[in-house]
Amino acid sequence: MTNGYTAAVSVTGEGRNGGRAQSDDGLLETGLSIPKELGGAGTATNPEQLFAAGWGACFLGAVRRAAADRKIRLTSTAINTEISLLHEDGAYSLAAVLNLELGGVDQETAVELGDAAHQLCPYSKATRGNIPVTINAAAV
Questions:
Q1: How large is the average pLDDT for residues 92-114?
Q2: Distance CA 40, CA 37 (A)
Q3: Across the chain, what does the average pLDDT equal?
Q4: Which one, of 124, 113, 136, 123, lies nearest residue 63 by Cα?
Q5: DSSP conformation class of 131
Q6: SS3 136
Q7: Residue 83 and residue 93: Cα distance in Å, rounded?
C-alpha cells in the first residue's frame, strides 16, 4: 500500500464479552463488554461504540475535505454516529445513522456536503450496499 496506514489491534479473552483490545502502539487499550441493553454487564466499551467513533471521525474528515474542494468555509462540524446491532431471524447485522451538524452553511449545502462525504469516507465505502445507512445533515 502506497502512502497508507495500517492500524493493528489485538483482542484477547472473550472478545466482546469481557475481552481486551490494545493497539500495537499502545494508544488504544480498553476493556470490552456486552451492553446492558443486550444482557451484558455494560462496564466497558463495545465494538459498536468503537466502530461509531471511527466512522464519525473519518466522516467529519471527509466533510472537511468536501467543503475545502468546494471552497466552502465551515464554522463548526459535529456528528453523532449511531451503530445498531440488530438480531433478526437468528442472524446479526448492523445499521447506521449519521447525524451531521454543520455551521456556516445553509440546509441545502449541509445535505450536499453530507452526500459528498459519504462518497469520500472509507468507512462509508466499506459499508455501502452492506448495511442500511441514513445520513441526517443539518445546518446549525
A1: 98
A2: 7
A3: 96
A4: 113
A5: S
A6: strand
A7: 10
Within the chain, where are the H helices?
47-69, 107-120, 122-127
Tally of CB atoms within 10 A around 107: 12
CA–CA distance, 135 with 53 (Å, rounded to integer):
16
Q: Residues with Cβ < 8 Å from 88, sequence gap 6 or more?
A: none
CA 62 to chain CA centroid, nearest Å: 12
Dihedral through CA 53, CA 59, CA 60, CA 64, nearest 10?
160
Mean pLDDT of 11-27: 96
**Closest to 52 measured CA to CA, from 101, 131, 123, 117:** 123
Pairwise CA distance, residues 103 & 110, whole Å = 9
pLDDT in tens, 25-80: 999 999 999 999 999 999 999 999 999 999 999 999 999 999 999 999 999 999 99
Pick from 128, 123, 7: which is nearest to 63 by CA? 123
